[in-house]
Automatic annotation (TrEMBL):
GO terms for molecular function: manganese ion binding; phosphatase activity. One of its GO terms (cellular component) is cytosol. PANTHER family: SHEWANELLA-LIKE PROTEIN PHOSPHATASE 2. Gene3D superfamilies: 3.60.21.10. InterPro entries: Calcineurin-like_PHP (IPR004843), Metallo-depent_PP-like (IPR029052), MPP_Shelphs (IPR041787). It holds the Pfam family Metallophos. Residues 78-279 form the Calcineurin-like phosphoesterase domain. This is Calcineurin-like phosphoesterase domain-containing protein. Residues 49-71, 388-417 are annotated as: Disordered.
Length: 417
């Protein structure tokens, strides 16, 4: 007796496979666009718990906040902190090689279970801003597979760009975003040809056709930057919504500018959640007040002045006393001409060395923290020579503000806590 149920089963299987085609096409298009924009990186699509849908209709219910960002981490066996990058991919990779986090040839993560903290200011002054965002995301995924962690943070330039303040964007930076927009729109047109996919949202919806005081030759790049980075824009929601504004790892507090007691009393986890929601377009057009102005967490310079005597050590001591277990604050934002250094009895550690060619083209340096207390600086400056004192190794350094001993290259150097 023939089994007349077989053909329908086969047909059902084929039908089921066909239903997957639109989503497979969408994933292919997204990967194709990423590859084109990032300079040749493959980022396979993945579910992102921090992502919110871009397709919203009038009258839709308010979107719930995504899961909380992690503000507090226990001490890490090995943590590398890198300062401001400002659109310089070459210096970014040089810093990561210096810390032995990436393979010198392939650029892949080789840092094992290490933790990387990038303290903000990927944007402005350089032309590789998107490429750095993509590269850090690639490393985030690779590190996670090895038990490592990549943490990215907001600087004042991230906040400015989401607000639409592009005063420090370069011509090359505008071109990079214009290229992104071209590929992104090509991807949308490809998706729109496939039945079964929701009509893609135009990233330029609501973006003005022109801007006062913007030359005609830069309008396309300016519009692309607005479309990508405005709250809930494709780039801001995908990459910047993962950024922390404040981070505590063991006894170290990380923040781009600095913290005041009022910020701590407001709530560090609350700050992270509110800024993340603002990036997702769930708040007002402008960033929360504590991200704006000279006393903002991403703008403060009270503890990073080039002259140590002008740093407010008493205020720093008070702030740290309000964060359980905190012993030091690690900051970027203010270029340290003499390299990474510490003031206020090494309780204020300043790690922005102006490495970007758009800043002072400084030699890359990174801060390494082992556990809670072991700190050292890795530098690419060949002027620093190793010296031995008994069983420990320290290095010479030019006079300047308070400092931590350094070592040229990736060699091991013991540093007093």
């Amino acid at each position: 007796m023939e089994d007349d149920r077989a053909p329908p089963a086969k047909e059902s299987s084929s039908s089921s496979a066909c239903k997957d085609v639109p989503n497979l096409l969408s994933s292919f298009v997204d990967t194709f666009v990423d590859f084109s924009v990032s300079g040749g990186l493959f980022l396979l699509p993945q579910n992102d718990q921090n992502a919110l849908p871009h397709h919203r209709n009038p009258g839709d219910d308010p979107l719930p906040s995504p899961p909380p960002l992690q503000t507090y981490y226990p001490p890490q066996d090995r943590l590398i902190a890198i300062g401001d990058l400002h659109g310089d991919l070459e210096k970014t990779k040089e810093s990561l090689r210096l810390a032995k986090l990436i393979d010198p040839e392939s650029g892949k993560w080789v840092g094992g279970s290490s933790t990387l903290v990038q303290i903000g200011d990927v944007f402005d002054r350089g032309g590789d801003e998107l490429k750095i965002l993509y590269y850090l995301e690639k490393l985030r995924r690779e590190a996670a597979r090895c038990g490592g962690t990549v943490i990215t943070m907001h600087g004042n330039h991230e906040i400015m760009n989401v607000e639409g303040d592009f005063r420090f964007a370069t011509h090359k930076g505008l071109d990079e975003f214009r290229g992104w927009a071209d590929w992104y729109c090509i991807g949308n047109r490809m998706k729109s040809l496939c039945k079964g996919l929701e009509e893609p949202k135009d990233p330029f919806d609501g973006v003005p056709l022109g801007f006062e005081n913007v030359k005609e030759e830069f309008v396309d790049g300016f519009r692309a930057r607005v479309a990508a980075l405005r709250p809930n824009g494709p780039i801001s929601s995908r990459f910047l919504a993962k950024n922390l504004t404040v981070l505590v790892v063991g006894d170290s507090v990380f923040v781009h500018g600095g913290l005041l007691a009022a910020h701590v009393s407001y709530g560090l986890e609350k700050i992270n959640a509110e800024v993340r929601d603002w990036v997702h377009g769930l708040k007002d057009r402008f960033a929360p007040e504590y991200c704006r102005g000279r006393n903002a967490v991403v703008w403060l310079r009270n503890f990073s002045h080039e002259f140590a005597e002008k740093c407010d050590c008493s205020a720093l001591e008070h702030v740290l006393s309000t964060i359980p277990g905190a012993k030091k604050m690690i900051m970027g934002h203010t270029i340290q001409e003499f390299g990474i250094n510490g003031v206020c009895e090494e309780r204020a550690i300043r790690i922005d060395v102006g490495m970007s060619k758009g800043c002072i083209n400084g030699l890359p340096e990174v801060l390494e923290i082992n556990g809670n207390s072991g700190m050292r600086i890795l530098t690419s400056n060949p002027l620093y020579e190793k010296k031995k004192y008994g069983s420990s190794v320290e290095s010479e350094r030019r006079p300047g503000p308070g400092f931590l001993p350094q070592e040229h290259g990736p060699k091991q150097v013991e540093v007093k806590a």
